[in-house]
């Protein structure tokens, strides 16, 4: 099946996508490369001195934090793999391009990316997942996070049962046509 899985890891501290990738890798005997792509602002230099800016230092430190957390997940699961950090260069078109290029260079045969909540605000942002799917020649698995607010809403709506269900009848959900 799969021998090498590349998983894109971001800034979320729970690393749900990485943990899912590790579970898949352990099941099929694959190794994992956790890839974090740094922000393009990381390339800006300080004023006139050429010294790294505070923004660049902060972003690099954040990348190291993500890499350390990713390494711990791999180690705790005893999963064979590595962690890499790459930068989004100004000449790169997108995060998706960096991820696809890394997958090709590393010989990955499966790419796993996480999916964000597709809220209205996300419509205005770059859709990294679609970009990765479009650019990768190998299969891409998009992992969606558990949606607690949606699950809580579904549970709350199941409490709106008809009186007959409370007497042992079949449950009926009441819906309004507003």
Automatic annotation (TrEMBL):
Residues 158-178 are annotated as: Disordered. CDD domains: USP-like. It holds the Pfam family Usp. InterPro entries: Rossmann-like_a/b/a_fold (IPR014729), Universal_stress_UspA (IPR006015), UspA (IPR006016). It comes from the Bacteria. Residues 1-143 form the UspA domain. Residues 158-168 have a biased composition (Polar residues). Belongs to the universal stress protein A family. PANTHER family: STRESS RESPONSE PROTEIN NHAX, UNIVERSAL STRESS PROTEIN HP_0031. This is Nucleotide-binding universal stress protein, UspA family. The lineage of its organism: Bacteria, Pseudomonadati, Pseudomonadota, Betaproteobacteria, Burkholderiales.
């Amino acid at each position: 099946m799969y021998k090498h899985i590349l998983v894109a890891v971001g800034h979320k501290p729970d690393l749900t996508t990485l943990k899912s990738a590790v579970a898949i890798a352990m099941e099929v005997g694959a190794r994992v490369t956790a890839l974090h792509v740094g922000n393009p602002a990381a390339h800006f230099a300080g004023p006139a001195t050429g010294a790294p800016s505070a923004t660049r230092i902060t972003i690099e430190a954040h990348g190291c934090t993500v890499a350390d957390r990713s390494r711990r997940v791999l180690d705790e699961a005893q999963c064979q793999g590595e962690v890499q950090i790459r930068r989004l260069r100004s000449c790169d078109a997108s995060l998706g391009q960096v991820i696809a290029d890394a997958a090709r260079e590393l010989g990955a045969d499966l790419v796993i990316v996480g999916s964000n909540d597709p809220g209205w605000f996300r419509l205005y942002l770059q859709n990294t997942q679609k970009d990765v799917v479009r650019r990768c020649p190998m299969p891409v698995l998009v992992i969606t996070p558990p949606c607690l607010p949606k699950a809580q809403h579904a549970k709350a709506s199941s409490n709106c049962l008809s009186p007959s269900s409370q007497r042992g009848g079949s449950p009926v959900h009441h819906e309004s046509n507003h």
